[in-house]
Amino acid sequence: MTRRVPRYQATIKQTLIFYDAPQMLLLSGQDDNPIVALAVDHEDMADPFFACYVTKPHWQQYLSGKVDLRYLYDNPMFGNHYFFDLESVEEDKRVNLTKATPAQVKDEEAYWPGHGFFSYNHTEEIEGHQKVKTNEQRLFIDGTWDTTEFSDFMRSLSGIYDIHVLNDFIGISNKAAEQGWQRLKSAIAKRRWTAGGSYINFFSNLLGAAELNNQPMRLSGIQYASPGHLNFSCNKATYEAAIHTLQNYEMTEEEASKAFQHINKVLDREKLKTASPEAEFSSDDIRDHVQDSADVLLRATGIKRPDKIRQLCDDNILVYAKVSLAMFRRYKNAHAYISKGRVQLSQ
Amino acid sequence: MSVDDIKAEKQFRESDILPNGCPPAEAEKPKEGEYFRLVDTNPPSQQDFDSIYKLTGKERRNIDLCRLSSCSLFLGAVGRRNMENKRKLPKLRKKLIIKIRLNEEAGLMITADSGHCDLWMYSDFDPVKAVVSEEGEGAQ
């Protein structure tokens, strides 16, 4: 049996910022949680660093540029900040953390990072963090657009993109993927599924929780004119798979729309739309039909292995059906812009 | 010309403290152009270009001594912004940004994708004279 690492012990993983000397370090602490540490001046130590534990979701957000370094220090896991002396590092790269006093924590000028420092400012690449080169993609737009419509369309499109990140992931089988798989399962299990709607940001949050969002789709430019265009950066292969499914939407639309209506109708009738995952269908037959319809919806959204999504939902057909509805809604919504001639996938 | 050939021919600013195999074989001549550095004094002094290892005489466990014997710079057009961002870190907060012009005669350098450069200067290169502008004097 391996002994749990005490919270006050950490192991240096690597330097993140080198400027004449290490200015920022990444460490690993209890339960492999990341710890960030900044070089500071502190009279009692020869080579002092000011550190805090970071939750894994916050770490992923930081790596994808969604939050800055200051945010990590503002929201430390366990609520504490620590000092350690790099001079006292052991051969095995272990250091002992000393809890900072409230007065020390308040001394922002001496110890805290300023606002607006993001992970792209690191001088060193993060080991094991696959930095995939992003590609600039472009969609063409026409007609009149309200600002809310831009965000509505982009939300649907990035949801579809996230679904394809998930689709790529479920085809992988290795040890790292197994950990991601468990994190996905756990993120789905934590949801109550009682909102009954589109579950906005569900897929991006899901990928974040599973640490699979190392290359999210990002809007990088808008030229609003008739015609105009939207530019965004993302993984080219994932983008192309998402666009391919959207292009084929009309081929599967009739069958998928029937399945969509069927699930909605059953969930309404059985009062399950806003029910929690523990709720049950009134009969096994009804449940099995809903499962069949959910399979149809997932295939229409380009998911190659609906059975894998079902496993992620712990074989809970109510949750599985809600996930399939949430996925299909994104296609339905994005395709509405295409069918109205307001978005062209290529010129 | 290999790094070993260059080392046989040229003296480095920190020659007396450079460990074996330093600068590393992948180090190259700097591309001619403008670079940015954070310094303590205005106008900058020779000490502002000394390595941490030279200034402190202190080795650090688990940290590459060769790198500690180099001088950090940031390259080119994004260098200024990069420097501004680094000043958000506690130890670099009070530093001043200067712009310096380097050519192939400055030393040997490794440039990372991030734009950060480790420079091992030749002893006959005077970085103070190569300063183009100081903080508040167009170092942007």
What does this 3D model show about the protein?
The complex is a heterodimer of chains A (347) and B (140). With 347 residues, chain A is an alpha+beta fold. Chain A folds into 2 domains: 9-121, no CATH class; 135-344, no CATH class. Chain A contains 12 helices and 11 strands. In chain A, the strands form 2 sheets. Chain A has a 7-stranded antiparallel β-sheet with strand order 6-1-2-3-4-5-7, with no helix packed on it. In chain A, strands 9-10-8-11 form a 4-stranded antiparallel β-sheet. In chain A, strand 2 and strand 3 (34-39) form a beta hairpin. The longest helix of chain A has 23 residues, at 147-169. The radius of gyration of chain A is 24 Å and the shape is globular. The model of chain A has no long low-confidence stretch (mean pLDDT 87). Chain B is α+β, with helices and mostly antiparallel strands. Chain B has one domain. Chain B is built from 4 helices and 6 strands, in the order αβααβαββββ. Chain B has helices spanning 3-9, 52-56, 65-68, 76-86; strands at 33-39, 71-75, 96-102, 107-111, 116-121, 131-133. In chain B, a hairpin with a 4-residue loop joins strand 4 and strand 5 (116-121). The model of chain B has no long low-confidence stretch (mean pLDDT 88). The interface between A and B is medium-sized, with 36 and 26 residues.
